[in-house]
Design goal:
heterodimer; A: 210 residues; mainly alpha; Rna Polymerase Sigma Factor, Chain: A; Arc Repressor Mutant, subunit A; B: 222 residues; 0% strand
Chain lengths: 210, 222
């Protein structure tokens, strides 16, 4: 890499939030090296191929840092490009410069990636602590007055109806369980719960109608 | 997700030597040769339309044919050039002049025929045979183009398929006007602009998916 070529390693200034645009080293100087390495790699030289991939990775990472902010996104993008380079390495023509070939592949992968992310963002809403808080029953205080009103209404029902509604609706028993618990027949339970709902509707006023 | 150094290690360990692609113009020439063979075979089996000698002297017909052939050649060259990552996208404009020549001459022909003949000049039998020509020409050419350009999927799928489809459409239109005396306006519109639209449209709609379907998967172990 830079140290090996006798050039000082590149320094770059990055803001405290990582927002500053990182300097992208120009590939032109190393272009010929990379082209030669790729030509060897196409002929089957594995060590040349490994060296090439190792050398282009920091460069790709600096390109990716311009488009993505999340470090794991950057790494994903770099790997995506490496895999694409691997899949279509036979399209490189050693008589032509390597830099433009690589940069076009990189840019296409970035654009595809950003589009995919954009589509996902349009479809999905991230689950935040706020959502969970509001789903908790304690957060929904306005249900309490309703409950009191309902309990009062249930108290006004006849004993049979009250029993039926308590067992079947509030305790959510099955008809058979409720029948064993109360000693009422299933048919009686059905009739009583039906009448109870009807009278509750009358007592509370039908709220489905505005 | 695996670490990038491990990925590099794995890619280089499992790498096999590859054969470089031939230059794009050579590959376009191969495809055009295939196109010529297909059209030639169809000419043998279906026969050239009988009035070709008289029609070829009609400047607008001749210009239309020349335009279509040129569009086919240039669009094929452009498709193979644009499919490579290091070529400029401006190559997409290469077939534009030929397209103008082709389509403008269709327009003129249609107008002339509309006035003199009317829209009901072609029988059902002719239309069916035309459809056969259309499918027989375009299907092998499209498939060949798809296979030859499969590596373009992660790069510029839409642009490449549009160019490839334009090339197929132009060759198909040439074949149609060589084999069938479809002089009626509607048939010409349908076959010339229609084929172009159909292939470019199909290319834009499904080309991406088709290319991805057939593309070499970026596998670590390939």
């Amino acid at each position: 890499m830079t140290e090996r070529n006798g050039r000082p390693p590149l320094l770059r200034l990055v803001g405290s939030d990582g927002d500053a645009a990182p300097a992208v080293p120009e590939p032109t100087a190393r272009d010929t090296d990379w082209a030669i390495l790729m030509a060897h790699a196409q002929d089957g030289d594995r060590s040349a191929y490994q060296r090439l991939l190792q050398e282009i990775t920091p460069y790709l990472r600096s390109l990716a840092a311009r488009r993505h902010r999340d470090p794991s996104d950057i790494e994903d993008a770099v790997q995506d490009i490496l895999l694409t380079v691997h899949a279509i390495r036979h399209t490189f023509d050693p008589t032509r410069p390597f830099g433009p070939w690589l940069v076009t592949i990189a840019n296409r992968r970035f654009i595809d990636r950003l589009r995919r992310q954009g589509r996902r963002r349009n479809r999905e809403t991230p689950l935040t602590p706020e959502h969970e808080t509001f789903a908790e029953p304690q957060a929904n205080l306005e249900e309490t007055p309703d409950r009191r009103e309902l309990e009062k209404a249930i108290d006004e029902l006849s004993p049979m109806q009250r029993k039926a509604i308590q067992l079947l609706k509030l305790k959510e028993m099955s008809l058979r369980e409720a029948s064993t618990a109360s000693g009422m027949s299933i048919a009686a339970l059905k009739v009583n719960v039906h009448r109870a709902v009807k009278s509750l509707r009358k007592i509370l006023g039908d709220r489905s109608e505005p | 997700m695996i670490a990038t150094p491990d990925l590099i290690e794995s890619l280089s360990r499992n790498m096999k030597p590859v054969r470089r692609l031939h230059p794009p113009v050579t590959r376009a020439a191969c495809w055009l040769l295939l196109a010529a063979v297909v059209v030639g075979l169809l000419a043998v089996s279906q026969g050239i339309r009988p009035d070709i000698m008289s029609r070829i002297h009609d400047p607008s017909f001749a210009a239309g044919i020349v335009g279509a052939v040129l569009t086919g050649v240039l669009a094929a060259v452009a498709a193979f050039l644009v499919s490579l990552p290091d070529r400029s996208r401006l190559w997409l404009l290469l077939p534009a002049p030929a397209v103008v020549l082709w389509l403008s001459n269709i327009g003129y022909q249609c107008l002339g025929d509309w006035v003199s003949i009317g829209p009901d000049g072609v029988s059902i039998g002719e239309a069916t045979r035309c459809l056969a020509t259309l499918v027989l020409t375009s299907l092998p050419l499209s498939l060949a183009m798809l296979v030859m350009l499969r590596y373009a999927a992660p790069l510029r799928p839409t642009a490449v398929t549009c160019m490839g489809s334009l090339a197929v459409a132009a060759i198909t239109a040439t074949a149609l006007s060589l084999f069938h005396s479809a002089d009626a306006t509607l048939m010409i519109i349908m076959f010339n602009i229609g084929t172009a639209m159909m292939f470019v449209g199909f290319g834009a709609l499904f080309g991406r998916r088709m290319l991805q379907w057939i593309t070499p998967r970026p596998s670590i172990r390939d």
